[in-house]
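Subject: Re: docking follow-up (S-adenosylmethionine)

Dear J.,

Thanks for your patience while I sorted out the input files. As discussed at Tuesday's group meeting, I've set up the holo structure prediction with S-adenosylmethionine included as the bound ligand rather than trying to dock it afterwards. The sequence and the ligand SMILES I used are pasted below, so you can double-check that they match what you have on your end before we go further.
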Amino acid sequence: MTTGEAQPYLLGLRLRGRRVVVIGGGAVAARRVPALLDAGADVLVISPGVTGSLEDLALAGQIRWERRRYAAGDCAGAWLVCACASDPGANAAAAAEAEAERIWCVRADDAGASPAWTPASGAAGDVRVGVLSGDPQHSAGIRDAVIGGLRAGTLGARRGRGRRPGVALVGGGPGDPGLITVRGRQLLAEADVVVADRLAPRSLLDELPPDVEIIDAAKIPYGRAMAQERINASLIAHARAGRFVVRLKGGDPYVFGRGAEEVLACLRAGVPVTVVPGVTSAVAVPAAAGVPVTHRGVAQEFHVVSVHVPPDDERSAVDWAALGAATGTIVLLMATARLEAVADALIRHGRAGNTPAAVIANGTLPTQRTILATLDTVAPRVFEERMGPPAVVVIGDVVNVAAEVAELMRGMQPAAPGGAGAGPGRFALAADPGSQAERWTDRA
Ligand SMILES: C[S@@+](CC[C@H](N)C(=O)[O-])C[C@H]1O[C@@H](n2cnc3c(N)ncnc32)[C@H](O)[C@@H]1O
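The structure tokens for the complex came back this morning:
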């Protein structure tokens, strides 16, 4: 901002039900309109053409679109005008009309002539951040730093605000700390107490301030049922004591995670609960090894099965006959110790012994390992390779798609950090003597 100029006065506009006229339908309008809709504005777009995303909003009835150029009188009834047409003359005319009517106008093409400026803005939970510095790039950089800090908890989201009540059940994703959701990460940053599972992204716990109490749920003693009761009791006790508790779970809380039991226990005790879905290992771990659980023309369905009890166990509620007869992908969790019985059941009920199979252990983590086999060979291969939990087993022709992807990736240059093929999910194919199948050697 130029020294000597009056500083702009920052406001938060509450636009619910208020008309905002947007002149122009190009890239700038396409960026502005979603934020205006989030604020509840009644958006009228005036432009001979619009981007595909704006057209979709118009077709869905979320905005009104008048397919024409700006005309005098278009600002009538508006509380705000966004002049972002490609024609500077139209923007100037709209801005002049808005000025005459004492309506605030933002001109996208000429900041110097614009009575109002749009700050670089963003949100971290219920905190909105707006930055004006006179240089849009600089403002965006500061905005990103502040939002990033709030989301990661490095900017003290826990201080100076109303405390969140109760418990948040947060799906932490399959293990890579980058695979928790933004909301999950942010709630974690606000926690007073974190009750963490063994398969939750535990590296995130190191980043928490020292006064956050971390309870290792994996270490809670007694049998499985008793341990669950004690976890529930611990969530309730801390929440009742006025602390904000994050229950950090692996994957998604509702996929074989007993999440609903914890929600019900809290609600029955009168403790409010928020559930933040997570990226489930059932899909993400195969993906990290290049295996798509569906693929056009190969698999139109996938079945996710918990094998915490084997097929012939009276407690098993899985229809193995139907799975054997089906053609879709089968994704098995908690299966490594019972793979022989599973393969037998599937082959007995119709799956071919040479159906491709992949086993991915420690998926998305630097220690990720993958083996490729067939239904016939997968159990002995897992034994030979000493593959233990946590692992996801994928059975079906989609495994061949991953091999094709790997083959294409093999000759490629190392990807840029964060780019396709980067991270712990990267893999390369290597010949595996003594086996018909190839073996994937994962690279951290
Ligand atoms: C009790 S289930 C919980 C699943 C979790 N709620 C989810 O949505 O991913 C635990 C099983 O998930 C699978 N699993 C979870 N994280 C994994 C990982 N990083 N790599 C491989 N398998 C994983 C394993 O089969 C493990 O035994």
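A couple of observations from a first look. The CA atoms of residues 7 and 235 lie 49 Å apart. The longest strand covers residues 356-361.

Let me know if you'd like me to rerun anything.

Best regards,
T.
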